[in-house]
Amino acid sequence: MTFKYRSDVTSGLLSCQKRSGCRLIAQLLVCSGLLVPQMLPVAYAGTVAWQDDMRCGSGAFRQDRQAGLKERILETPNGSIGYFRFGHGSPIVLITGYRASMAEWNAYFLSDLAKHHEVVVFDNRGIGQSQMHDASYSVRDLASDTAALLRGLHLKNATVLGWSMGGIIAQQLAIDEPSLISKLILLSSMPPGPRAALPPTDVDQALSGSGSGHFDHVMEVLFPTPALPSAKACFVHDMFAPVGYTEPHITDAVTHAQDLILRRWKQDNQALRGLDRVTVPTLILAGTSDEVLRPSNSVVLGHILPNATLVEVRAGGHAMMYQYPRQLADRIVRFIGTQ
């Protein structure tokens, strides 16, 4: 893999083959005031172009259709966590995003992961069966919930994947509890601190809205225009929908709490400093057509994290696990398999 600077400001200034040596030089330049943190080097694996592969409820194998798959409840000192667990192999724990439940995961994406790994998905606090005693919470509390799940299920050498806001929770977990994570995957997420780009106002309104036309508005911000017809036709059919699990209602209290988490993350300089010390191997996946959390967020994450690789997906939207369930799962499985 070629080591590159992924910044218009620094493009062509330096070319190195060894990431550790280049980063040390760059950090010395930061200390001397000759370089800003956002100009640090990025291990950039390039842009991939995948063909849209929405399954639209096809007859392909789905773990959520298997008999005996039931939601389980883990009781913790802070409350309960509802989760599903299936597949075989080293564990991968997936943290879902803003105003989302387990149902928002693409069933075929999860099923392909489960061919190689034990998959654990769960609802964040305040959603479904995940109900905590404290109604007010921060990103550190959500990270603590994930840590409680990892410990409670005795998961060793776990990969943690966070999508969107789930990537924020995963970053905080990596800062607070790095020993619990073997590999980190950040899918369509954003960094802490002032360089983060929050969702535009119209996008935020679409995601947090309700009523007539809400579904179409959400599809329009989750997917690029060429993928919209398939997304509108297939999204519901491809959602993770085990027998007996009903997609939970997202309350106004949860929406408010998660809004605060996003806004505070952009101001969280403590997390920004902590992330620079996270050495867990990290895969950053960004869709070039993501209108919710623009791909510049993932580039900044690649600048900050010392042991990260950035992969950009051409024409990928914010929910690109629906556009490319098999290809995305395959890329993740290959990353987990690397030493």
Based on the coordinates given, report the CATH architecture: 3-Layer(aba) Sandwich
Shape: globular
Structural Rg? 19 Å
Number of strands: 10
What oligomeric state do these chains adopt? single chain
Domain AB hydrolase-1: 91-195
Protein name: Alpha/beta hydrolase
Organism: Caballeronia udeis
GO molecular function: hydrolase activity
Q: Could you please describe the fold and organization of this structure?
A:
A ten-stranded mixed sheet has the order 1-2-10-9-8-7-5-6-4-3, sandwiched between helices. It has a single domain (41-337), classed as Rossmann fold (3-Layer(aba) Sandwich), CATH 3.40.50. With 339 residues, it is α/β, with parallel strands linked by helices. The chain contains twelve helices and ten strands. Helix content is 36%, strand content 17%. Strand 9, helix 10 and strand 10 (308-313) form a beta-alpha-beta unit. Helix 2 (107-114) runs parallel beside helix 12 (325-337) and helix 3 crosses helix 4 (165-176). The two termini are 14 Å apart. The radius of gyration is 19 Å and the shape is globular. The longest helix is centred in the middle third of the chain and has 14 residues, at 139-152.
What does the secondary structure layout of this molecule look like, with pairings?
Blueprint: E1 3-4, H1 19-31, E2 42-48, E3 72-76, E4 79-87, E5 91-95, H2 107-114, E6 118-122, H3 139-152, E7 158-163, H4 165-176, E8 181-187, H5 201-208, H6 214-222, H7 228-238, H8 252-265, H9 269-275, E9 282-287, H10 296-304, E10 308-313, H11 320-323, H12 325-337
Parallel strand pairs: 2-10, 5-6, 5-7, 7-8, 8-9, 9-10
Antiparallel strand pairs: 1-2, 3-4, 4-6
Helix pairs in contact: 2-12, 3-4
